[in-house]
Amino acid sequence: MAPRKHQRTGRASGDPQDGQPAAGVAALRIDLEQLELGPQPLEAQIPAAWIASVLAETDAIVSETDGGGIARLELMLQTDRTLLVRGQLELRYLVPCARCLEPAPVDVGGELGDLCVTFVPADRVRSWAEFSGEPGQEDEIEPLETSELDEIGYQGTTVDLCALVSEQLLLAYPMRALCSRGEACRGLCMRCGTELNSTVSDSEAAASCPKCGLRLLPDGSAADDETPDSPWKRALAKVKSEEDL
Q: What are phi and psi of 182, to 5 degrees?
């Protein structure tokens, strides 16, 4: 019997329903022996549990109710066994708001989810890992071309895209996210930690923390003359006073 080929829909094994994404990260392990030459679409469902494991060292909250994510990819196998992978990730998770710590949604998609990587047989990859550190060897190594920077070597007949997707998830993790209020979020009181969004009226140009009385600006930050004292400010004041002596 002839080996089974990836269909034009790019589905993984397991006979999923027609038109539905292949379930699980197993669909991201590409058997080149069963992949036809030319462009092949691949749409894989990424389980929420797998996304959560990738982001386990972050503050991300991945909900099972969101259904995980989807990788919409195009695979192009060339006659020299080079595999070009292009596409996009689409998923959502929550992180704490940088101001009030309430859940802030993060949508991975668009430019954040873009993928474009070339896999080539390992024996054709020029890698800095081959540098042995011997005197004079650095003079013999030519700099990598721009086209080689996104090349990943593979061995055997299988290309595993799981590491690629994991890396993209981590790269897309935001350094700072805001809740649904956006820039209008007033956050927490700098002195006592009281949540200010529900205690300060939008119509007030300035207000005070209802718990500690700290005078606030409209964005929830402390007025200049009310900025809470802190150890580093006390240390700075001490240094300045010593300089004045």
A: 65, -140
| Residue 84: alpha-carbon gap to chain centroid | 21
In terms of DSSP H, where are the helices of the chain?
48-54, 162-171, 231-244
22-23 vs 29-31, strand pairing mode:
unpaired
89 burial class (0-12, 13-18, 19+ CB within 10 angstroms)?
A: buried
Least confident span in 5-14, 127-136, 202-211:
5-14
Report the C-alpha gap between 123 and 120 in whole angstroms: 8
Report how far residue 238's alpha carbon sits from residue 245's, in angstroms, rounded to the nearest whole number. 11
Residue 39 confidence (pLDDT) above 80? yes
- C-alpha separations of 61 from 29, 47, 53, 182 in Å: 26, 14, 11, 19
pTM: 0.64
CB neighbours of residue 42 within 10 Å: 23
Nearest in space to 179 (alpha carbons), one of 188, 170, 171: 188
* CA dihedral (210, 211, 212, 218) positive or negative: negative
